[in-house]
Write a structure and sequence with these properties.
2 domains; Rossmann fold; 35% helix; 9 helices; 11% strand; alpha/beta; six-stranded parallel sheet
Length: 240
């Protein structure tokens, strides 16, 4: 199956979420204005979440958007015809390294492209070897605009990367539109009980995969610093 707005196999029949609305300058004959292509690991993975979040923002602006897994796109020789048939006006590719399927396809070279960098692009892949560094820069050159989610990602970009096409757009997060939609205190108490955490203990949430590349242990250093700074200070005395 496709999942919600995320095709998992071949070209789909356009559905309502990709064809609703409209905005000035959008071709009314087009089926899809924007295709967001992304590497798929599982439904809750970061790249999937990012693709869906960008899609929601663009749909709210009146554009018709579909999110496509890289491994679900048509074969290389058929993508140009596929894009023309859908009326695609813009391609958004998530992750420079994992997006090679699209970024290196010369048949799509005339299509405007926004490249959304992944953290591993700039923190790992570009430094892995001369070949991966060359491929990264080639894909950046191919893009019309390159998006980085943080200032640390900007700082990690190779010196040869053309900064004039890079834009800093911080990551967003979806929150319940109404306070009543949020989980109540009972949910947190149940969570603590399940993990045998004292009910009065503070809980910190790190939203990240538990992998070395995520550098999750940096929190340990932060907590050590907090303990040194506030040793002997009660919770109600901590600065807010």
């Amino acid at each position: 199956g496709r999942g919600v707005g995320v095709p998992t196999s071949g070209p789909p029949t356009p559905h309502s979420s990709s064809t609703h609305g409209g905005s000035p300058g959008v071709d009314a004959r087009a089926v899809v204005d924007v295709v967001i292509a992304f590497p798929f690991a599982h439904a809750a993975a970061g790249n999937t979440t990012t693709a869906q979040r960008i899609g929601r923002v663009l749909r709210a602006a009146g554009l018709r958007v579909e999110c496509w897994r890289y491994d679900a796109l048509p074969p290389a020789g058929e993508r140009e015809v596929w894009a023309q048939a859908l009326g695609v006006r813009l391609l958004v590719a998530i992750h420079a390294t994992k997006g090679a399927t699209v970024l290196d396809d010369h048949n799509l070279a005339t299509l405007p492209l926004v490249l959304v960098l992944g953290g591993t692009d700039v923190n790992h892949d570009v430094h892995a070897s001369p070949a991966t560094a060359e491929a990264f820069l080639r894909r950046v050159q191919r893009a019309s605009v390159v998006v980085a989610f943080s200032s640390s990602m900007l700082a990690a970009l190779p010196a040869a990367c053309p900064r004039d096409k890079v834009r800093l757009i911080p990551q967003g997060v979806g929150v319940p539109p109404e306070l009543g939609d949020a989980a109540g205190p009972g949910a947190m108490l149940a969570f603590k009980a399940a993990l045998e955490i004292p009910s009065a203990a503070p809980v910190f949430l790190l939203v990240a995969g538990l992998r070395p590349v995520k550098d999750v242990l940096f929190l340990a250093e932060a907590f050590q610093s907090l303990r040194r700074r506030f040793d002997g200070v009660s919770r109600d005395q901590l600065p807010v």
